[in-house]
Design a protein that fits this description.
Thiol Ester Dehydrase, Chain A; alpha+beta; 140 residues; single chain; 3 helices
Length: 140
């Protein structure tokens, strides 16, 4: 599962890794130190990156498991930050089997599809941010 991030150089620089995955979901984690800003908290760009990568990684993994060769890209997102991140952090998201089936059907019929995901960022044992992201998926 870790190899899904292997070609993503920013993930390596920010030390983002897959910390957990299950049938319909994924969790990515990162340490605070390489992601700190001048206030000693996590840089908003790092938070945006891990949230986006969690969604991208989940969709990419589901496509690979289904044997579908496609490009995945975020096309729209909105993030609400609720608490400063002062420790290592993780991003978690999942999609229902029905959403995955609908995406695969769209790819089979039209060669493209969209997937909306809600992605949560946790640190200090609480939710610190939430992203709503729309991903475009285009069959190669």
């Amino acid at each position: 599962m870790e190899d899904v991030l292997a070609g993503i150089l920013p993930a390596k620089a920010l030390q983002i890794s897959v910390s957990n995955h299950w049938k319909n979901g994924i969790e990515l984690s990162a340490p605070l130190q390489p992601n700190r800003n001048d206030k000693g908290t996590a840089f908003a760009g790092s938070i945006e990156s891990i949230l986006t990568l969690a969604g991208w990684a989940l969709i990419t993994r589901e496509l690979q498991a289904a044997g579908i060769d496609a490009d995945v890209m975020v096309v729209k997102n909105e993030t609400e930050f609720t608490t400063a991140v002062r420790d290592s952090f993780s991003a978690e998201t999942s999609m229902t089997p029905e959403d995955a089936a609908e995406l695969f059907q769209s790819l089979n019929i039209r060669g493209r599809g969209r997937q909306k995901l809600t992605i949560f960022l946790h640190a200090q044992k609480k939710k610190c941010a939430v992203m709503t992201a729309h991903f475009a998926v285009i069959r190669r």
